[in-house]
Amino acid sequence: MQSDGENVTGPMPHAGSGKIIAVYRGGTVTEEEFSKYIGFMSLMNQEYMNVEQYSPYQKTVLKPYIGHKVLASRLGEMSDEAKKILDTQVDTFYAYVKQAAEVDTALNKRMEEAGLSDSDIKYFFRLITAVGDAEVNKITDDAVMAIFEETRMDYYIVTLRHILVGTTDMSAGEVLRTEEAALHRIQEVKTKLEAGGDWHVLAKAYSDDPGSSDNGGLYEWQTAGGFITEFKHAVNEQAVGEIGVPVKTPYGYHVIQVEQREEISFEKLTEDHKAAIRQMLASEAMERFMSNELEDLITEIDLSASNEEG
């Protein structure tokens, strides 16, 4: 009888070998299995490299792994098409890792130290991907539409000009000027624009935005939701053609002129945007499961042996 989602992931390599460190309703996790999982995760995020040395973090990594195993065990039989898609994803990831390891000696060393076999890499990636894809596929079109309606203004398409008088260089963390000096300077810019000043001349002279100071402060056909909150509200609510009041953001003060704004219906929403909403809702569902239901499914966790060895 298959368990732990083996109908989707296949059996865990070396399943059952080593000391059991966790018991949950429907399965167990062994010390060797968990060690390999940490090794696998460190391939994608180096922050996992030190988890085994720091016992407080082990449980926070172990529980999501158990959660993925539980969710995998609930997956039904996959269609032939779904299996083919998943197989392709696994093969593509595996080929990428092997190719990267050939040129990245540090990555290759991490794989060797973790004792990761080819089947280990494929198993863990298949587990995480199958569960993630299944959660995404549960999200209905109605759910996507409901989120779109709640956040419709995030999808407005805007063309605008702006000049930023910065207070802080966010990339360097350096103070450029005081709030008072920045506000005085942006008011000066606004006055000149309202008097017919040229955006190209003024942006080049005043703007601290390297992305637009050389093209008259222009941003064309941008999705409003991509802007920082205060800036987004301004470009969505400001009258088209108006030189707006200065807008304060963590970067400093902006003066904005919206040249064009297009409202987007759900029917015109791009597939990428719909996919992003599905992914967001799926992630929220996973977080709810991990925070609420999972705790009651775990009956025992004993990391003492791992901690003693570390």
From TrEMBL:
- SUPFAM superfamilies, sorted: FKBP-like, Triger factor/SurA peptide-binding domain-like
Provide the alphabetized UniProt keywords.
Isomerase, Rotamase
The PpiC domain is annotated at 158-260
Q: Which InterPro entries match?
A: PPIase_dom_sf, PPIase_PpiC, PrsA_foldase, Trigger_fact/SurA_dom_sf
Which residue spans adopt a coiled-coil conformation according to this UniProt entry? none
Q: Where are the transmembrane segments?
A: none
Specify whether Isomerase is a keyword of the entry.
Answer: yes
Q: Does the keyword Cell cycle apply?
A: no
EC class? isomerase
> Which EC number(s) are documented for this chain?
5.2.1.8
**Pfam families given in the database record:** Rotamase_3
GO molecular function terms noted in the UniProt entry: peptidyl-prolyl cis-trans isomerase activity
**Which PANTHER family does the record cross-reference, listed alphabetically?**
PEPTIDYL-PROLYL CIS-TRANS ISOMERASE HP_0175-RELATED, PEPTIDYLPROLYL ISOMERASE
Name used for this protein in its record? Foldase protein PrsA
Q: Which organism is it from?
A: Paenibacillus phyllosphaerae
